[in-house]
Amino acid sequence: MCPEIRVRRPVPPGPSALEHGLQRWMMEDMAAELEPRSFRAAIPPGALPASTRDVEPLQRVTGQARAMEAIAFGVGLDAEGYNIAVSGQSSSGRTTAVGILVTEAAAARPAVSDWAYLHNFTDPHRPVAASLPPGLGPALHRDLARLVDACRNEIPKAFESESYQERSSKVLEPVSQARDHALAEMQRAASRQGFAVNITPMGFVAVPIGQDGRPLAPEVVASLPEELRAAIDQRGEAVEEAVGATIRELRKLDTQAHDAMEALDRDVTRFVVGHILDELREKYGAYGLTAHLDAVEADIIANLEQYKRFTQAMLQQLPAHLLSQATEEREQLLSRYTVNLFVTNGGKGHGAPVVEERNPTYFNLFGRIDYQAKFGSFVTDFTQVRAGALHRANGGFLVLQLEELLTDGRAWLMLKRSLKSKEVRVEGIGEAWLPLPATNLVPAAIPLAVKVILIGQPIVVALLELLDPDFPELFKVRAEFEPDSDCDAPTIAAYAAFVRRTTDTCSLMPFGHEALAEVVHYGNRLAGRQDRLTTRYGAIADLCQEANSFAAKEGTAEVAAGHVLAAIAARRRRSSLVPDRLRRLITEGTLHVETSGAVVGQVNGLAVYQVGSHAFGTPVRISCRTGVGRRGVVAIEREVERSGAIHTKGILVLSGYLTGTFGRMRPLAFTASLTFEQSYDEVEGDSASSAELYAILTAIAGVPIRQDIAVTGSVDQFGHIQAVGGVTEKIEGFFDVCNEAGLTGQQGVVIPATNVLNLTLRPDIVAAADDGKFHIWSVATVEEGLEILTGMPAGTLQEDGAYPDGTILRRVADALAKMHELTAHDAGNDGPGADKPAQ
Known about the structure:
Blueprint: H1 23-27, H2 65-76, E1 84-87, H3 94-107, E2 114-118, E3 128-132, H4 136-159, H5 162-192, E4 195-200, E5 203-208, H6 218-223, H7 226-284, H8 290-302, H9 304-308, H10 312-317, H11 320-335, E6 340-343, E7 354-357, H12 362-366, E8 368-369, E9 372-374, E10 377-379, E11 385-386, H13 389-392, E12 397-401, H14 402-406, H15 409-421, E13 423-424, E14 446-447, E15 451-456, H16 458-467, H17 470-474, E16 477-480, E17 484-486, H18 489-506, H19 513-527, E18 532-534, H20 537-554, H21 561-574, H22 577-587, E19 598-600, E20 602-611, E21 614-628, E22 632-635, H23 636-639, H24 645-662, E23 670-676, H25 689-701, E24 704-706, E25 709-711, E26 714-715, E27 721-722, H26 727-741, E28 748-752, H27 763-770, E29 775-779, H28 782-790, H29 808-828
Parallel strand pairs: 1-15, 1-16, 7-12, 12-15, 20-25, 22-23, 25-28, 28-29
Antiparallel strand pairs: 2-3, 2-6, 4-5, 8-11, 9-10, 13-14, 17-18, 19-24, 20-21, 21-23, 26-27
Helix pairs in contact: 2-3, 4-7, 5-7, 7-8, 18-20, 19-21, 20-21, 22-26, 24-25, 25-28, 25-29
């Protein structure tokens, strides 16, 4: 997989190269020129099939052995705090991998319990939580629904039946006879006293009787002699006592009648629903529901009058509005006997639940209590308690996207609290959040035993671990997904299998061998290395769908390499507004970038810009002017505070190189003004430090630099060229500028030798290099870069401490020595040549 580097080192031209001009060293082979076939990865023979028809779809995520091992470890360890935090880039297959491992682990576990909420007859505001064996929750729901139906329909029928009427008549007959006897005795006692007792709506009224047997009017009684009136009053008192005794007797009889009817009603009710309740006790008593069923029976009997109102005789007497109100009251009463099937396992014989909540808001995670507006307030009951994802995943696994979870701070705080307390609660909105008074419920907490898997971006996971002290204690297992994997034969084969899965899932045409090769090259490009493949499988799937669309337009039966390349090119065009406009500015001369000729102290550097998700490279002119002085390297961007910290470090490294190379025997006395021409943004990074050094050295030596070559690479204090980022984009950016101006066959780019593996260039650049129209050189030292850029030997330090004549470094050393003499002479004369020391 390593690219081949062809090194061709001709005899360096002598000092006469400058006199003969540029023609000679443009025609000679430069050192360390790369073969075009090293611009892209070489796919091992036989690694790819002839078509995706010949491979099976990919079943598991590949290239993530470390992360998969960590997830499997966390899933299999049931200990406190061993929840899992999975970090990785989007579209890396992290969610798919978690789903596969968690589903396999859940299938091997026993099924979890069902949970239900029941009415609390002691305190209705605190519903009771009941745990049931897996699948028994729906059975309880059906059985209680049968009980409710019996209360709704069968009890009223029983109370209007002939049997009930006969039994009630028999029950009330003795009481009626006793009542008639008591009234008759009262009348006889009153008659003995010369009185009669009239029964009126206002009660019993004793009236004196005259000689003719008729009641005496009050005015007649008032006209009688006083002795007679006194005798009548005395007899009347005796009658009142008899009436009072009778009233007391009648009240006792009414109580007896009421008790007898209640006993009859209880017997009738038990006859209707007693066998249902007995069956429920037998079936569910072992699960702690006996006391609840007893309370249900007691409540049914206590509210029999509600059911009696729904006999046919009563229904015919009630007006429509009263009937509606009575029906609503009855249904509210009946709802107390139902069950809120909160969470059910659905009757599965085995397997723990796996819940992936894509919208982990507080209420979606922890449930909610619904409310209804009635008569100016919000009301609710235990049947309105709704489960959240945490309840549904209880006993199993809960998969959450971390970034989505953190958008609701209350959800994150309550998740931590629940994991710590090992219980989960459902909370209502509360009166503070409602515009009207509300019924408040406090459902009983449910014990929590769940494995939480958080999936997020690496930076988010790292920040949470740093800023939240609870996070490391609650999520002790870290599973980190790598952004790329080795580009070997098994991984390439897995790529083909993934493309097959994509074609099956998305109903795409099959991909041919060459099309698969271009997909692999695209994976190299996203990874940024020839020996690595990106694990962002989502991006590969997107490319497959876009390539399929181009194949469909042509009406082919298979996706070919051209379709994949067309999809990549179309994707690039959609994001190339900014680079196209920059290239136009260069072509029309607004931005000064030369692609031919040679200039002293001027070099084409390469910059990378990021616009959204699209990165592109563009050349930028770096220039240097030197003179006598003591300020050393003066970076204009640094002086005007438009230089980032890393770029400033690179400038100081250049000063270290110059001091170590040329200032060991005498102090350096020069001033080099260095800048990025026509750059108006902050300059950051050290990838242009080698280009800056080439500009400084050639400016001091007075040697021209080829403008048809661009340079990238950082440098250390010893002159070693170091790797930089974005080398592919930088090369492509300079190639596009040269192609726009016209390829001459001499243009190219100098890159660090350590960046060769990062080359994942476009096919058109490879083709241009094959035709000899574009070149790429790799260098390991400053000296190698100088030879390519100037056509002169750089020079090697000899035993006498000097560089050979005719070399660039000798010219630099001689120029610096002369500047030192001039500076020393001017300093002795206090002349204008004495500059300030570098700050």
